Amino acid sequence: MHSFQSKKMEIPLGAVWLMNSISEYKGKQELYARQSPQMLKALVEMALIESAESSNRIEGVTVEPGRLRPLVIGHARPRDRDEEEVAGYRKAMALIHNKHQSLEIAPAVIKELHRLCRGEIADAGAWKQKDNELIRRNPDGTVDIIFKPVSAADTPKAMEQLCRLYRHSLDQAKYPPLYAIACLVLDFLCIHPFRDGNGRVSRLLTLLALYHHDFLVGKYISLERIVEQGKETYYEALNRSSQTWHQARHDLSPWLHYFLGIILSAYKEFEQRAAFVKPARGAKTEILEKSIERQSGEFTITELTRMLPGISRPMARVVLEAMRKKGLVKLVAKGRNARWRRI
Questions:
Q1: What are 331's strand-pairing partners?
Q2: N or C end of the chain, less CB within 10 A?
Q3: What are the Cα distances from residue 192, in Å, to 42, 60, 339?
Protein backbone atom coordinates (compact mmCIF):
# COMPACT_ATOMS: atom_id res chain seq x y z
CA MET A 1 0.00 0.00 0.00
CA HIS A 2 2.83 2.40 0.81
CA SER A 3 4.34 1.97 -2.65
CA PHE A 4 1.20 3.58 -4.12
CA GLN A 5 1.24 6.55 -1.75
CA SER A 6 4.27 8.36 -3.07
CA LYS A 7 3.31 11.89 -4.11
CA LYS A 8 6.04 12.00 -6.72
CA MET A 9 6.60 8.98 -8.90
CA GLU A 10 9.92 8.75 -10.69
CA ILE A 11 10.55 5.56 -12.64
CA PRO A 12 14.30 4.93 -13.15
CA LEU A 13 15.43 5.06 -16.75
CA GLY A 14 16.74 1.50 -16.52
CA ALA A 15 13.29 0.29 -15.46
CA VAL A 16 11.72 2.13 -18.39
CA TRP A 17 14.05 0.30 -20.77
CA LEU A 18 13.16 -3.03 -19.16
CA MET A 19 9.43 -2.33 -19.46
CA ASN A 20 9.81 -1.34 -23.12
CA SER A 21 11.72 -4.55 -23.84
CA ILE A 22 9.05 -6.63 -22.12
CA SER A 23 6.33 -4.91 -24.12
CA GLU A 24 8.16 -5.76 -27.36
CA TYR A 25 8.23 -9.44 -26.42
CA LYS A 26 4.58 -9.27 -25.40
CA GLY A 27 3.71 -8.19 -28.93
CA LYS A 28 5.08 -11.48 -30.30
CA GLN A 29 2.94 -13.77 -28.12
CA GLU A 30 0.14 -14.25 -30.64
CA LEU A 31 2.65 -14.98 -33.39
CA TYR A 32 4.11 -17.86 -31.38
CA ALA A 33 0.64 -19.20 -30.57
CA ARG A 34 -0.30 -19.37 -34.26
CA GLN A 35 3.09 -20.66 -35.36
CA SER A 36 3.49 -23.63 -33.06
CA PRO A 37 0.47 -24.62 -30.95
CA GLN A 38 1.98 -28.04 -30.15
CA MET A 39 5.14 -26.42 -28.81
CA LEU A 40 3.07 -24.13 -26.57
CA LYS A 41 1.06 -27.09 -25.28
CA ALA A 42 4.29 -28.80 -24.23
CA LEU A 43 5.59 -25.60 -22.64
CA VAL A 44 2.38 -25.15 -20.62
CA GLU A 45 2.72 -28.67 -19.22
CA MET A 46 6.35 -28.18 -18.23
CA ALA A 47 5.68 -24.73 -16.75
CA LEU A 48 2.94 -26.18 -14.52
CA ILE A 49 5.28 -28.86 -13.18
CA GLU A 50 8.24 -26.52 -12.71
CA SER A 51 6.14 -23.80 -11.05
CA ALA A 52 4.51 -26.15 -8.55
CA GLU A 53 7.89 -27.66 -7.70
CA SER A 54 9.99 -24.47 -7.51
CA SER A 55 7.52 -22.23 -5.67
CA ASN A 56 7.12 -24.84 -2.92
CA ARG A 57 10.81 -25.77 -2.83
CA ILE A 58 11.75 -22.13 -2.17
CA GLU A 59 9.73 -22.48 1.04
CA GLY A 60 11.29 -25.83 1.97
CA VAL A 61 8.44 -28.02 0.67
CA THR A 62 9.75 -30.88 -1.50
CA VAL A 63 8.47 -34.11 -3.04
CA GLU A 64 10.16 -37.01 -4.83
CA PRO A 65 10.94 -36.16 -8.49
CA GLY A 66 8.97 -39.18 -9.66
CA ARG A 67 5.86 -37.91 -7.91
CA LEU A 68 5.82 -34.44 -9.50
CA ARG A 69 4.20 -35.32 -12.79
CA PRO A 70 1.47 -37.55 -11.28
CA LEU A 71 0.63 -34.86 -8.74
CA VAL A 72 0.61 -31.90 -11.11
CA ILE A 73 -0.49 -33.36 -14.44
CA GLY A 74 -2.04 -36.69 -13.46
CA HIS A 75 -3.88 -35.40 -10.38
CA ALA A 76 -2.63 -38.29 -8.22
CA ARG A 77 -3.83 -38.40 -4.63
CA PRO A 78 -1.30 -36.75 -2.26
CA ARG A 79 0.43 -39.13 0.14
CA ASP A 80 1.75 -36.62 2.71
CA ARG A 81 1.62 -32.97 3.76
CA ASP A 82 4.25 -31.76 1.28
CA GLU A 83 2.46 -33.46 -1.59
CA GLU A 84 -0.80 -31.82 -0.51
CA GLU A 85 0.82 -28.39 -0.82
CA VAL A 86 2.31 -29.13 -4.25
CA ALA A 87 -1.04 -30.42 -5.48
CA GLY A 88 -2.73 -27.40 -3.94
CA TYR A 89 -0.42 -25.01 -5.76
CA ARG A 90 -1.36 -26.78 -8.98
CA LYS A 91 -5.05 -26.14 -8.21
CA ALA A 92 -4.37 -22.46 -7.59
CA MET A 93 -2.51 -22.15 -10.90
CA ALA A 94 -5.33 -23.93 -12.71
CA LEU A 95 -7.81 -21.44 -11.25
CA ILE A 96 -5.73 -18.54 -12.57
CA HIS A 97 -5.10 -20.09 -15.99
CA ASN A 98 -8.76 -20.94 -16.54
CA LYS A 99 -10.64 -18.11 -14.80
CA HIS A 100 -8.27 -15.13 -14.60
CA GLN A 101 -10.74 -12.86 -16.40
CA SER A 102 -13.25 -13.22 -13.55
CA LEU A 103 -10.69 -12.99 -10.72
CA GLU A 104 -10.04 -9.44 -9.58
CA ILE A 105 -7.22 -8.37 -7.31
CA ALA A 106 -9.24 -8.40 -4.09
CA PRO A 107 -8.84 -9.77 -0.56
CA ALA A 108 -11.35 -12.58 -1.15
CA VAL A 109 -9.46 -13.82 -4.22
CA ILE A 110 -6.10 -13.63 -2.43
CA LYS A 111 -7.55 -15.66 0.44
CA GLU A 112 -8.80 -18.27 -2.01
CA LEU A 113 -5.37 -18.59 -3.62
CA HIS A 114 -3.90 -19.10 -0.16
CA ARG A 115 -6.53 -21.70 0.74
CA LEU A 116 -5.72 -23.72 -2.34
CA CYS A 117 -1.92 -23.53 -2.30
CA ARG A 118 -1.73 -24.39 1.40
CA GLY A 119 -3.59 -27.63 0.83
CA GLU A 120 -6.69 -26.40 2.67
CA ILE A 121 -5.27 -26.87 6.18
CA ALA A 122 -6.92 -25.30 9.24
CA ASP A 123 -5.84 -21.68 8.73
CA ALA A 124 -5.67 -21.80 4.94
CA GLY A 125 -7.46 -18.80 3.48
CA ALA A 126 -7.41 -16.87 6.75
CA TRP A 127 -5.40 -13.78 7.68
CA LYS A 128 -2.76 -14.31 10.35
CA GLN A 129 -3.95 -14.26 13.94
CA LYS A 130 -0.58 -13.43 15.51
CA ASP A 131 2.11 -10.91 14.61
CA ASN A 132 4.99 -12.37 12.62
CA GLU A 133 8.60 -11.40 11.96
CA LEU A 134 11.02 -12.12 9.14
CA ILE A 135 14.26 -13.43 10.62
CA ARG A 136 17.73 -14.45 9.46
CA ARG A 137 19.55 -17.32 11.16
CA ASN A 138 23.28 -16.72 11.42
CA PRO A 139 25.96 -19.45 11.25
CA ASP A 140 26.70 -18.96 14.97
CA GLY A 141 23.11 -19.81 15.87
CA THR A 142 21.95 -16.27 16.61
CA VAL A 143 18.86 -14.80 14.98
CA ASP A 144 18.41 -11.32 13.51
CA ILE A 145 15.04 -9.70 12.87
CA ILE A 146 15.28 -8.26 9.36
CA PHE A 147 11.70 -7.01 8.96
CA LYS A 148 8.53 -6.63 11.00
CA PRO A 149 5.42 -6.93 8.79
CA VAL A 150 2.09 -5.25 9.45
CA SER A 151 0.49 -6.41 12.72
CA ALA A 152 -2.20 -9.09 12.69
CA ALA A 153 -4.76 -6.58 13.94
CA ASP A 154 -4.06 -4.17 11.06
CA THR A 155 -3.74 -6.81 8.33
CA PRO A 156 -7.38 -6.93 7.11
CA LYS A 157 -7.49 -3.16 6.70
CA ALA A 158 -4.05 -3.08 5.05
CA MET A 159 -5.07 -5.71 2.49
CA GLU A 160 -8.27 -3.87 1.66
CA GLN A 161 -6.30 -0.67 1.18
CA LEU A 162 -3.62 -2.37 -0.93
CA CYS A 163 -6.15 -3.87 -3.35
CA ARG A 164 -8.09 -0.59 -3.56
CA LEU A 165 -4.97 1.49 -4.26
CA TYR A 166 -3.75 -0.98 -6.88
CA ARG A 167 -7.06 -0.89 -8.77
CA HIS A 168 -7.29 2.90 -8.42
CA SER A 169 -3.77 3.42 -9.78
CA LEU A 170 -4.69 1.44 -12.88
CA ASP A 171 -8.11 3.03 -13.32
CA GLN A 172 -6.54 6.48 -13.20
CA ALA A 173 -3.62 5.39 -15.42
CA LYS A 174 -1.33 6.71 -12.70
CA TYR A 175 1.25 3.94 -13.15
CA PRO A 176 2.32 1.68 -16.05
CA PRO A 177 0.84 -1.80 -15.44
CA LEU A 178 4.20 -3.51 -14.84
CA TYR A 179 5.20 -0.84 -12.33
CA ALA A 180 1.86 -1.21 -10.54
CA ILE A 181 2.23 -5.01 -10.38
CA ALA A 182 5.72 -4.66 -8.88
CA CYS A 183 4.30 -2.30 -6.24
CA LEU A 184 1.43 -4.69 -5.52
CA VAL A 185 3.71 -7.68 -4.95
CA LEU A 186 6.24 -5.78 -2.82
CA ASP A 187 3.52 -4.33 -0.60
CA PHE A 188 1.86 -7.74 -0.27
CA LEU A 189 5.15 -9.24 0.94
CA CYS A 190 5.69 -6.38 3.38
CA ILE A 191 2.20 -6.80 4.82
CA HIS A 192 2.83 -10.57 5.06
CA PRO A 193 -0.86 -11.26 5.68
CA PHE A 194 -0.73 -15.02 6.31
CA ARG A 195 0.91 -17.15 8.98
CA ASP A 196 2.66 -19.16 6.26
CA GLY A 197 2.59 -19.36 2.48
CA ASN A 198 3.09 -15.65 1.74
CA GLY A 199 5.86 -16.26 -0.79
CA ARG A 200 3.78 -18.76 -2.73
CA VAL A 201 0.75 -16.47 -2.80
CA SER A 202 2.93 -13.57 -3.96
CA ARG A 203 4.00 -15.62 -6.98
CA LEU A 204 0.42 -16.62 -7.76
CA LEU A 205 -0.61 -12.98 -7.39
CA THR A 206 2.13 -12.03 -9.87
CA LEU A 207 0.82 -14.57 -12.39
CA LEU A 208 -2.77 -13.34 -12.01
CA ALA A 209 -1.88 -9.66 -12.34
CA LEU A 210 0.26 -10.34 -15.42
CA TYR A 211 -2.63 -12.22 -16.99
CA HIS A 212 -4.89 -9.21 -16.45
CA HIS A 213 -2.60 -7.10 -18.62
CA ASP A 214 -2.05 -9.77 -21.28
CA PHE A 215 1.50 -10.62 -20.25
CA LEU A 216 1.08 -14.36 -20.79
CA VAL A 217 4.66 -15.55 -20.43
CA GLY A 218 3.97 -17.12 -17.01
CA LYS A 219 1.71 -19.63 -18.72
CA TYR A 220 4.55 -21.00 -20.84
CA ILE A 221 7.69 -20.36 -18.78
CA SER A 222 7.87 -20.95 -15.04
CA LEU A 223 8.51 -17.63 -13.32
CA GLU A 224 8.85 -19.57 -10.08
CA ARG A 225 11.76 -21.59 -11.48
CA ILE A 226 13.58 -18.42 -12.53
CA VAL A 227 13.04 -16.95 -9.05
CA GLU A 228 14.36 -20.12 -7.41
CA GLN A 229 17.46 -20.19 -9.60
CA GLY A 230 18.43 -16.76 -8.25
CA LYS A 231 16.66 -16.69 -4.90
CA GLU A 232 19.58 -14.96 -3.17
CA THR A 233 19.03 -11.99 -5.50
CA TYR A 234 15.30 -12.19 -4.73
CA TYR A 235 15.85 -11.92 -0.99
CA GLU A 236 18.44 -9.17 -1.41
CA ALA A 237 16.14 -7.01 -3.58
CA LEU A 238 13.21 -7.58 -1.21
CA ASN A 239 15.32 -6.67 1.82
CA ARG A 240 16.69 -3.49 0.24
CA SER A 241 13.30 -2.22 -0.93
CA SER A 242 11.49 -3.04 2.32
CA GLN A 243 13.73 -0.80 4.43
CA THR A 244 11.66 2.12 5.85
CA TRP A 245 8.60 0.71 4.04
CA HIS A 246 6.39 1.40 7.07
CA GLN A 247 7.27 5.10 6.80
CA ALA A 248 6.58 5.09 3.03
CA ARG A 249 10.17 6.23 2.46
CA HIS A 250 11.46 3.02 0.94
CA ASP A 251 13.38 2.75 -2.32
CA LEU A 252 11.38 0.68 -4.80
CA SER A 253 14.20 0.58 -7.38
CA PRO A 254 16.00 -2.62 -6.25
CA TRP A 255 12.77 -4.60 -6.22
CA LEU A 256 11.46 -3.00 -9.43
CA HIS A 257 14.60 -3.84 -11.41
CA TYR A 258 14.64 -7.37 -10.01
CA PHE A 259 10.96 -7.94 -10.76
CA LEU A 260 11.18 -6.64 -14.31
CA GLY A 261 14.36 -8.66 -14.86
CA ILE A 262 12.49 -11.86 -13.97
CA ILE A 263 9.71 -11.11 -16.47
CA LEU A 264 12.19 -10.21 -19.21
CA SER A 265 14.25 -13.37 -18.58
CA ALA A 266 11.10 -15.45 -18.96
CA TYR A 267 10.21 -13.78 -22.24
CA LYS A 268 13.72 -14.32 -23.60
CA GLU A 269 13.53 -17.99 -22.72
CA PHE A 270 10.07 -18.18 -24.29
CA GLU A 271 11.41 -16.77 -27.54
CA GLN A 272 14.39 -19.13 -27.53
CA ARG A 273 12.09 -22.10 -27.16
CA ALA A 274 9.23 -21.06 -29.42
CA ALA A 275 10.34 -18.45 -31.94
CA PHE A 276 11.82 -20.60 -34.70
CA VAL A 277 10.16 -23.94 -34.19
CA LYS A 278 8.92 -25.78 -37.26
CA PRO A 279 5.37 -27.08 -36.61
CA ALA A 280 6.07 -30.44 -38.24
CA ARG A 281 8.58 -31.46 -35.61
CA GLY A 282 7.83 -33.00 -32.23
CA ALA A 283 7.46 -30.18 -29.71
CA LYS A 284 9.11 -31.97 -26.80
CA THR A 285 11.93 -33.21 -29.00
CA GLU A 286 12.58 -29.63 -30.10
CA ILE A 287 12.59 -28.37 -26.50
CA LEU A 288 15.03 -31.11 -25.46
CA GLU A 289 17.37 -30.48 -28.40
CA LYS A 290 17.44 -26.74 -27.68
CA SER A 291 18.24 -27.45 -24.03
CA ILE A 292 21.09 -29.79 -24.99
CA GLU A 293 22.49 -27.19 -27.38
CA ARG A 294 22.74 -24.72 -24.48
CA GLN A 295 24.70 -27.12 -22.23
CA SER A 296 28.28 -26.24 -21.36
CA GLY A 297 30.58 -28.96 -20.10
CA GLU A 298 29.44 -32.48 -19.24
CA PHE A 299 25.86 -33.32 -18.29
CA THR A 300 23.71 -36.37 -17.45
CA ILE A 301 20.24 -37.49 -18.45
CA THR A 302 19.16 -36.98 -14.84
CA GLU A 303 20.21 -33.32 -15.02
CA LEU A 304 18.28 -32.86 -18.28
CA THR A 305 15.06 -34.38 -16.97
CA ARG A 306 15.35 -32.36 -13.77
CA MET A 307 15.47 -29.16 -15.84
CA LEU A 308 12.65 -30.37 -18.11
CA PRO A 309 10.15 -32.31 -15.97
CA GLY A 310 7.92 -32.99 -18.99
CA ILE A 311 10.71 -35.04 -20.64
CA SER A 312 11.08 -38.73 -19.73
CA ARG A 313 14.44 -40.52 -19.40
CA PRO A 314 13.72 -42.90 -22.31
CA MET A 315 12.90 -39.96 -24.55
CA ALA A 316 16.08 -38.15 -23.49
CA ARG A 317 18.14 -41.26 -24.33
CA VAL A 318 16.55 -41.54 -27.78
CA VAL A 319 17.21 -37.88 -28.59
CA LEU A 320 20.78 -38.02 -27.32
CA GLU A 321 21.51 -41.13 -29.35
CA ALA A 322 20.11 -39.48 -32.48
CA MET A 323 22.24 -36.39 -31.83
CA ARG A 324 25.30 -38.60 -31.22
CA LYS A 325 24.89 -40.22 -34.63
CA LYS A 326 24.78 -36.75 -36.16
CA GLY A 327 28.02 -35.83 -34.40
CA LEU A 328 26.34 -33.21 -32.19
CA VAL A 329 27.05 -34.82 -28.80
CA LYS A 330 29.56 -37.29 -27.41
CA LEU A 331 29.14 -40.00 -24.77
CA VAL A 332 31.97 -39.28 -22.34
CA ALA A 333 31.37 -41.94 -19.68
CA LYS A 334 29.10 -44.99 -19.80
CA GLY A 335 27.17 -46.56 -16.96
CA ARG A 336 24.26 -45.72 -14.69
CA ASN A 337 25.34 -42.08 -14.45
CA ALA A 338 26.51 -41.77 -18.05
CA ARG A 339 27.87 -38.35 -18.90
CA TRP A 340 27.48 -36.53 -22.19
CA ARG A 341 29.09 -33.49 -23.75
CA ARG A 342 27.93 -31.22 -26.58
CA ILE A 343 30.33 -31.08 -29.54
A1: 340
A2: C
A3: 35, 18, 44
